[in-house]
């Protein structure tokens, strides 16, 4: 499932290529025909992510709300650009260290552009949990491929939505109702206020912290990968009830989530290992197997203590942890 960093990156793509443009909206699949008709021909005025929720605002205060869920993805095509992801994976991104700011240059000005200067080329970029360039487009706009729930089209770019959990047109009051049910997002909320909200929501619950971090009403954007990695980085037992944690422990979790979310948005990868040398960082950006402390490493030795990583089911989701480091 796409986690918070992916949705923020998708919002950034819409900000770059759709905001300020008149959008032709349609539903090739047919399931979103009524909603598409409401925003067809309108100008997109804002693109915003809150946790795993995407809100695309159109004139007259109509919003397209999208939650990708487990299977959802956006395919962008036309004169669109990548950002840091490709340069990072090829080792051309500024190596400032894990806690340094990533280069945010618009890639359309460089050789990694999907429509590079001097040799115009239109392509399709799929953005979900992972980001992949899937094909070069011979014409524009391309024909929809597969079950496209919603298509948003401008003169130069197209975005096709497939497989979302939620796709609806709502008004400003309904947007606020959705946001009111969400926990704080480090990229949206004031950091100090968000921290206090998370402390309050965790400390009053007897639910294990491994479940609370996945509860979008407690904190926004954390999914299975970040849950496992944040808990390991804190050396925290996922089974401890939130009510038994100290305020400072919860504050540390918030601050680490804020940091990791920033890394994810900058690089396009859920890169959770710190202090990597240049070779190890390049390897981690290329391969998930070299990117995480515990996620999907069940049965393998812990990178710190050598104990085999444990996998168990928690609320129907896979939970990974080290029984020695996290006790």
Mean pLDDT: 85
Low-confidence stretches: 84-121
Helix percentage: 25-40%
How many domains make up the 3D coordinates? 2
Q: Which percent band covers the strand fraction?
A: 15-25%
Return the CATH topology of the largest domain. N-terminal domain of MutM-like DNA repair proteins
CATH architecture of the largest domain: Alpha-Beta Barrel
At the first level of CATH, the class of the largest domain is Alpha Beta
What can be said about the biggest beta sheet? 10 strands, antiparallel
The total count of strands amounts to 12
| Backbone shape | globular
Please trace the helix and strand order, writing H or E for each element. Answer: HEHEEEEHEEEEEHHHHHHEE
Strand arrangement within the widest β-sheet reads 7-6-5-9-8-1-2-3-4-10
Radius of gyration: 20 Å
What oligomerization state is this entry in? single chain
Helix-strand makeup class: alpha+beta
Kindly report the name of the CATH homologous superfamily of the largest domain: MutM-like, N-terminal
* Alpha carbon gap, first and last residue: 28 Å
Counted by DSSP, the helix tally is: 9
Please provide a written account of the structure:
With 327 residues, this protein is α+β, with helices and mostly antiparallel strands. It folds into 2 domains: 4-80 and 115-177, N-terminal domain of MutM-like DNA repair proteins, CATH 3.20.190.10; 183-321, Helicase, Ruva Protein, domain 3 (Orthogonal Bundle). The chain is built from 9 helices and 12 strands. The protein has helices at residues 4-17, 33-39, 84-89, 172-180, 191-203, 209-212, 224-233, 247-267, 278-286; strands spanning 22-26, 42-50, 53-58, 62-67, 73-78, 122-127, 131-137, 150-153, 157-162, 166-171, 310-314, 317-321. Strands 7-6-5-9-8-1-2-3-4-10 form a 10-stranded antiparallel beta sheet. It has a two-stranded antiparallel ribbon with strand order 11-12. Strand 2 (42-50) and strand 3 (53-58) form a beta hairpin. The model is unreliable at 84-121 (pLDDT under 50). Belongs to the FPG family. Keywords: DNA damage, DNA repair, DNA-binding, Endonuclease, Glycosidase, Hydrolase, Lyase, Metal-binding, Multifunctional enzyme, Nuclease, Zinc, Zinc-finger. Its cofactor is Zn(2+).
